[in-house]
Amino acid sequence: MKLFLFTLVFIFTIYNSTAQTIQNSSYSTTGYIKMDGTIQNSSYSTVGYIKENGTIQNASYSTIGYIKNDGTIQNSNYSTVGYVKEDGNVQNSSYSTIGYVKEDGTIQNSSYSTIGYAKNIKKEWAAVVFFFFQFH
Predict the structure, then answer these.
(1) Which residues in the chain show pLDDT less than 50?
(2) What pTM was estimated for this model as a whole?
C-alpha cells in the first residue's frame, strides 16, 4: 500500500512539475500553464488551452482566439486584437504599447509597472493570459 501511495504522489508531482507558474505582482500564484498549453487556475482547475497550432480555447474547448506565427493575436472572428513582438513588446490592435513580457518572465504594463510573472513561459502565451483573454 505504501508503494502504491508513493507512486501516486510521485506521478502527481512529476505531472504538475511540468507546469509553469503564473504569479501576480505580489508573487502570489494565480495559475499555471502546462507544457501542453493547458491553462489552470491556482486550484489546478483547467480554465483554457493554447494548442500547438496557436488556437486558444476556453475550458469548454470553444475557440476564443488564435496566436499567429508572426505574434499576431486574433479573437475567434479572426479580428486582430494585438501583437506580441520578438522583443516582448505587447501592442493592441492600434499598435499602441500595452505592456511588456521581459526575458526573465516579468510582465509589465505600459508604464513599466510590474503586474506579474510568467517565468519560462512563451512570451505569446504570457501575453494572451495577462493582456488579451481573461481566464478565471
Answers:
(1) 4-8, 10, 13-17
(2) 0.82
